[in-house]
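Subject: mismatched residue count in predicted assembly?

I count 223 residues in my input, but I want to confirm that the predicted structure covers every chain. Input:
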Amino acid sequence: SAVISQKPSRDICQRGTSLTIQCQVDSQVTMMFWYRQQPGQSLTLIATANQGSEATYESGFVIDKFPISRPNLTFSTLTVSNMSPEDSSIYLCSVEEFSTGQYFGPGTRLTVT
Amino acid sequence: GQQVMQIPQYQHVQEGEDFTTYCNSSTTLSNIQWYKQRPGGHPVFLIQLVKSGEVKKQKRLTFQFGEAKKNSSLHITATQTTDVGTYFCAARYNFNKFYFGSGTKLNVKP
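Triage response: the counts match. Full output below for your records.
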């Protein structure tokens, strides 16, 4: 299974600023996903990021607010732009290999003050 | 949009008792995956079910996929304290979309 790391592991940011979260995978994978999880809640898919194409966003999430880059098959970034306290959450990236299950990074805990 | 309902929300059991969580969809699923998330951790993949009526076992865990591919269950026999966590189903309706259930938080009393 793929090993995934995320940076930063946590951050406290001021409203109106932006934060870029990095996701690094130890192997080449085609499909990468970004999720948001409020503490004690379920996971909500933000977007699917496949290398060589623009990210596909889910309803309620837009590129201007959550721009995503996927420059190669082992790396992706998610930016949370113009943050507000409502953006406080855990952000997780995941990858799927051969449609057999997703492997998640450890998550980035974001607090916006 | 697509939704998958998961019940119960919480389950408290005595160690040694059985536990079951259920996921239901109003539309046919491509497949369904199950995950376990320990407190403070990230979701960990348990299994994927693809075929109608499929049943898979992992030691004390039994996973079932309904004949109509609209529902699924996870059953744990003789729970242990190591089973504590939140169990999520993740429904796949097409290639790139996953919808996670609300999760069932399992607490096991020793």
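The first strand of chain A starts at residue 4 and ends at 7. Marking this ticket as 'not a bug'.
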